[in-house]
Amino acid sequence: MSAAVALPRQPHALRQRVVYLAASGQVGGAERCLLSLLAGLDRERFDPAVVVGSPGPLLEMLEGQGMAAQMLPMPMPLRRLSRSAAGSPRAGARATVSPLWQAPAYALRLQRELTRMQPEVIHSNGMKMHYFSAMLPTPGAALIWHLHDFPPGPDQGRESWPSRLLRRLASRPALAVANSEAVAAAYAARYPELRPKLRVIWNGVAPAAMRGGDGAAFRARHGIGSGALVFGMLAIFAPWKGQEVFLRAARQVLDQAPEVIARRLCFVLAGGDIYDTHGHGARRAELEQLSRQLALEAAVRFTGYTTDIAGAFAALDVAVHASTRPEPFGRTLIEAMAAGVPVIAARCGGVPEIVDHGIHGVLTAPGDPEALAQAMLALAHNPAQRSRLALAGRDRVERQFNQQAVGRQFESAYREAAAQWQH
Ligand code: GLC
Are 380 and 12 in contact (CB under 8 A)? Predict the structure, then answer.
């Protein structure tokens, strides 16, 4: 018997350990992307574990997927730090600078935890963790920044401190994976040192899981009739997601649609104030007030935040995306398309990489309720067009945004990053 054959099998040692860092335990697009990436990962070859920085449904959902997950709680002032607050004049020293004193201590705790976990690759899944993961070295581990957002914006015409800090840390990651070409281009333009490290990997979904939603149950839970014609937005209640644009467009659609269609119309806002960062928190109340001002109460449903994404999409006839700021990728679109729902989307950021106008959906000008209303009216009148778009959208997701294929792309990024570290 040769020595090699005599060695005991050590399946775990052969797997590459990847530790994922998620600052928020709430589940928005970046976290859904993480959940689906983990579901598509080859567990024979990769050994994933997740560190989450704040409470929320993410931990439980990860455990539900059989994932090793733990909390490393971030102090509240750090949790509340946000890019938007950093850029605003109101955000002075009190709101943004003082919490930074707590950052090195958290970075140190994270470093200790990572040293204990001994990953070969660290996958940082969001801006806050990009900073903490890069502040201190983790010998033996290659760092990957997964870029879900555009770079931090300027502050009163000058480069903001979050951007300057990111620039200083940009030499640390082995790779930076952007969720769209648009995001990669923005980073390349702003941080030339990141250019050779940038890769683009779009989000993926499991088409089968998105198709299995119970739309009838979702409608029943929210008092929506089975004969209703439902337009809906699934998005967190962040100011830039454009729920106001949707509500204003809804008013125009109700005013302009013929009575027989107007009677059936329903407008769903699925989402909630899930993040505890500055600039988030009181949107639902504002949106409900706007809905009252526009006399929309009878036609609008606020369903609250839901993790039943498949059920929510199955309840819609048309999914609307209305972001007023460039959307980094637009995961909600591929989820809707996978569920077989036609989409109307704001033409911005990464969205045109997902939807070809008139083929997989309809694109409209961002922040323009009038344009959105016209697109909604056109689809309200045309069920055949809705079906055509839905079919083409589903086909596109199956071919281009499949979770399994995305898993393979990340696996090769992990190998590439780890190889760089070893040389
Ligand atoms: C962030 C982005 C969104 C993207 C998601 C997944 O939530 O804002 O556009 O779809 O991450 O990458």
Answer: no
Nearest CA to 240 out of 306, 181, 323 is that of 323
Cα-Cα-Cα-Cα dihedral sign, residues 39, 43, 48, 49: positive
| Closest to 322 measured CA to CA, from 378, 264, 376, 281 | 376
Which residue owns the Cα nearest ligand 1 atom 7? 29
Q: How many CB atoms lie within 10 A of CB 177?
A: 22
User: Who lines ligand 1 at CB under 6 A?
Assistant: 28-30, 33, 148-149, 179, 203, 327-331
pTM of the predicted structure, to 2 decimals = 0.93
| Coil, strand or helix at 407 | helix
Mean pLDDT of 97-117: 89
Question: For ligand 1, what atom is nearest to the CA of residue 180?
Answer: 12
**The one-letter amino acid at 82:** S
Q: How far is the CA of 50 from the centre of ligand 1 (A)?
A: 19
Nearest-angstrom CA–CA distance, 62 and 33:
12
Return the DSSP state at 316.
-
Could you identify the residue written with the tokens 């976290």? 31
43 in Cβ contact with 13 (< 8 Å): no
C-alpha closest to that of 190 among 174, 208, 166, 212: 166
Q: Is the pLDDT of residue 228 over 60?
A: yes
- Angstrom distances, CA of residue 325 to CA of 208, 230, 317, 346: 31, 25, 25, 9
Helix H segments across 297-402?
A: 309-314, 331-338, 351-354, 369-381, 383-400
List C-alpha distances in Å: 107 to 70, 86, 129, 133: 16, 20, 9, 7
CA end-to-end distance (rounded Å), the chain: 34
Rounded distance, CA 414 to CA 107, Å? 23
Residue-wise pLDDT for 258-313, tens only, equals 999 999 999 999 998 876 666 666 899 999 999 999 999 999 999 999 989 999 99
Average confidence score pLDDT of the chain? 92
Q: Atom of ligand 1 at shortest distance to CA of 203?
A: 12
Position 202 pLDDT exceeds 80: yes
Per-residue pLDDT tens for 139-198? Answer: 899 999 999 999 998 888 999 999 999 999 999 999 999 999 999 999 999 999 999 999
Between the CA of 419 and the centroid of ligand 1 the distance, in Å, is: 28
CA dihedral 252, 255, 259, 261 (to 10 degrees): 10
